[in-house]
Amino acid sequence: MQLATGTTVITNGTLVDGNGGPPIPNATVVIRDGVIQSAGRESLASTIEPDAERIDAHGGTIMPGLVEAHFHPTYFNVAALEDLDIKYPVEYVTLLAAANAKLALECGYTAARSGGSLFNIDVWLKKAIENGVCPGPRLSASGREICGVGGLMDWNPDFRKIGMDGLVLLVNGPEEARAAVRKLVKDGVEWVKTYPTGDAAAPDTNDHHTLCMTFEEMHAVVQTAHNHKLKVTGHCRATEGIKNALRAGYDAIEHGTFIDAEGLDLLLKRNVPCVPALYFEQASVDRGPEFGLSQRVIDGHKETLEGGAESARRILRAGGRLGMGGDYGFAWNPHGDYAKELSFFVNYVGLTPLEVITCATRTGAEIMGRAHEFGTLEPGKLADVLIVDGDVVRDITLLEDRSRFVAVMQGGVVKAGWEATR
After folding, report:
1. Residue 2: inside a domain, yes or no?
2. Which of 102, 225, 261, 266 is 20 to 30 A from 253 (CA-CA)?
3. What residue numbers bound the domain in which 386 lies?
4. 281 and 380 belong to one structural domain
5. Which run of H or E residues covers position 266?
């Protein structure tokens, strides 16, 4: 991915560096050859080249680029889970994924971790972004997800003879689980996504269903993935499923909806991050009926919403780590609405704006394993910067409005915002 050349100076803004500390007014950020040289109050006038490019933050906020920690670029705003499996061929889904990646970057998300991919497209999307073929976030790629036969993502009955080849790898027992991971190794993934538990959206495997994968299958996935230097995460809503994942050695959990005290202790002991993806639940409750979600499913999402919000609060207050990622790609929760997750965590869950920004920047980079490269605005890190016209700490909903973006920068290169149209 291209880095800027020369020097760029950002002035006339309040710095929110992503570390959770108080905002710094009247800050200056100096970028040289795509890397942050300094960020803070200090006067740098004597050290800045006369011909340096200057960006005026217009009294707004200078902050790290956002990290979408549960990104589904291959999900195409479907109205039903089944659409992911049968609606479009791989060629069209690839084009949709590239469009969604571009949109995420324009929304201020300079990095993202894939939460599961159709056809392993995310592996190739990552390569295309890194090689400058198409714009998008810095991407940690996953591939087809692993699920036990008859689990959440296995809905085609055998008589149809069509399998689930584009969406998931179905396993029966630990040996098949190991074989599934080995297939993903060959495809070049970084994260292995699994389905240990059910979901309110499914007719037969609800939020408290823990048999989508056995512990032995989960442990086999982790052993094999770690042997190949891959990380493992899983869709974990049910209480026992969360604990099974943590005992099996998962590197992250998605949702963590109904975590109990024992599960929280396991999570904290291993410092495993959780990505709650909660705005999806609110959107399902509010807009699901428009798209045919049944009352039973809506009620399930209501329970998930309340349970997930309480779990997220408990995790963060206990010193755990939360990433921000909203499971976007459904009709009621479409691509482009990514920052609604951040507003939701302030206005509904009750986190402070600075806590949410830290989760959406530094913690997201940590989950990706790249916190040494980006996620905070500090000397030596890549200049992935979001400049917003307005006080984001006072009104986090400003991040939902792309028209307020002065600049979205990746490696010091302005990719979107006002500055991109100069």
Report:
1. no
2. 102
3. 7-65+375-421
4. no
5. helix 261-270
Contact present, 228 and 181 (Cβ < 8 Å): yes
Residue 18 sits in a domain whose CATH number is 2.30.40.10
Nearest Cα residue to 388 out of 5, 1, 10? 10
Closest CA to 130 of 119, 118, 121, 139: 139
Q: How far, in Å, CA of 201 to CA of 80, rounded?
A: 9
Q: How far apart are CA 135 and CA 81, in angstroms?
A: 27
For residues 36 and 146, state if they share a domain. no
Statement to judge: residues 352 and 393 lie in one domain: no
Q: Which amino acid is at 231?
A: K
- Dihedral sign, Cα of residue 369, residue 373, residue 375, residue 379: positive
Who contacts 142 (Cβ-Cβ below 8 Å, separation ≥6)?
A: 113, 114, 115, 116, 117, 122, 189, 190, 191, 192, 193, 233
Same domain, residue pair 104 and 163: yes
Count of structural domains, the chain: 2
CA distance linking residue 387 with residue 367, whole number of Å: 23
What is the tens place of the pLDDT at every residue in 244-300?
999 999 999 999 999 999 999 999 999 999 999 999 999 999 999 999 988 988 999
pTM higher than the cut 0.85: yes
